[in-house]
Amino acid sequence: RSQRALELMDSFFKRVHTGRIRWSVIAVHNGALPVVVDTKDLEVIRNFMNDLPLYHAFDIVKTKLLDGIKLAADVARPWKMGSAAVVILSDGDTVPSVGMPDLPPSVADVLVVGVGDPLVGKFIDGHLSRQDSSTLKQIANRLRGVYHDGNRKHLETDTLRKLASMR
Prior knowledge:
Elements: H1 2-15, E1 23-28, E2 32-39, H2 42-49, H3 65-76, E3 84-90, E4 107-114, E5 122-124, E6 127-129, H4 133-142, E7 146-149, H5 157-164
Parallel strand pairs: 3-4, 4-7
Antiparallel strand pairs: 1-2, 5-6
């Protein structure tokens, strides 16, 4: 999952002029932690995504993706209206059906990218974890965003252009 997420983001970095974009990364597991806030250094992002050992920061329990969305909203709240995009890379395995945080006016777009095999799971925290596409589509809908199955293909260029053209 993490390897595929890195491949998808590397493809993103190669196809979008990233020089004017500031990046923030929120790590999510049994809570949410800001890893990087407002960097232009893509190597920092790549280092995080290339198997940074997050098991030191989190206990192994069910992922709380909504905590990460809430923290992303809090980080983006002071930014200029329509200037931010939220990109969520997840398997969507443990998302509750209620409680979606509200995003601030600074967030213009949301892209939810599914990673992880939807057919063959991996045992994590005592249950079989695999990509739950229907849950990820629901998250995208609840956030008025777009869902993309990252296992089937890289992000579409038109989608990337839209995300990169933030005000």
